[in-house]
Design a protein that fits this description.
Length: 270
């Protein structure tokens, strides 16, 4: 096994166009390292479970209880499950770190559409499903059990299909090969950098000021990092960059826990 290497990095801030050119010309590697991304809060599955439970109770409410409360709770929980999933995708792709972070529903749907996670038809269907919930909350309409069953089932099938198409669990991190070791010893987790091997594309999500860039090695220790801060690019620019990287590196790759990923990022000088 090679010895631990202290990285010697030279950082250059570049424009997005230069970075895109660099990504487009970098040699494609089969080595991809991603990061496990935990869902926000308790995750969409728990919220959808609550929604289905409320639908069941609304269909056969306890004696003397108003079923409308359960119907309204059901659609609210189902929409929260969808919003939770959307936020999970935003966290995975670091969209909230852009200069125009997509915070409202329409901008988030636009982001997901540009990323290829949803298409325009799915986006419109989701907006209609969300509108039902808004009508319930803001127009004080008591939805029928049929309305609620249709809306909850639509949202359940949609969230399931989205996750099958594009998993929110694995976030972009490092594309390319480098040498390292990691593990647990003497009661602590550790990660050690052991040298650059080839050019990398890096989404440095653990830095104090997150950036995306290419690492161009000169020796096992020395490398130039040409990078762009995420806070200076738009969400649309980020979509373009992510799509290009995924086209260039289509393999799924493995995923590490955030604990080891942070330790290794620090050991690499990021």
């Amino acid at each position: 096994m090679s010895a631990t290497v202290t990285p010697d990095l030279t950082f250059e801030n570049v424009q997005l166009g230069d970075l895109l050119d660099g990504v487009a010309t970098i040699r494609v590697s089969n080595h991809i390292s991603k990061v496990l991304i935990s869902p926000p809060g308790g995750g969409p599955d728990k919220l959808m479970e609550w929604a289905l439970r409320e639908v069941g109770t609304a269909s056969a409410p306890p004696a003397g209880e108003d079923p409308s409360r359960y119907r309204i709770n059901a659609i609210s929980h189902a929409k929260r499950a969808l919003i939770c999933l959307v936020d999970w995708y935003m966290e995975r792709d670091m969209a909230f770190l852009c200069r125009d972070a997509p915070r409202d529903a329409r901008k988030q749907v636009q982001f997901l559409t540009k990323r290829g996670i949803v298409d325009s038809l799915t986006g419109r269907v989701l907006e209609r499903a969300i509108k039902l919930r808004n009508d319930v909350e803001h127009q004080y309409r008591d939805p029928s059990i049929e309305d609620i069953e249709d809306a909850v089932e639509l949202l359940r099938r949609t969230t399931t299909a989205l996750r099958l198409h594009s998993t929110p669990d694995y976030g972009p991190w490092i594309y390319g090969m480098f040498l390292y070791s990691q593990g647990t010893g003497h009661g602590r987790n550790y990660a050690e950098f052991r040298g650059w091997r080839e050019p990398l594309v890096v989404f440095s999500r653990f830095s104090e000021k997150p950036w995306v860039g290419v690492v161009l090695p000169e020796t096992p220790a020395k490398a130039t990092v040409r990078r762009t801060s995420l806070s200076t690019i738009s969400a649309g620019d980020l979509c373009e960059l992510l799509n290009l990287v995924e086209q260039r590196f289509p393999m799924q790759g493995g995923a590490a826990s955030p604990v080891y990923s942070k330790l290794l990022s620090s050991a690499m000088g990021f």
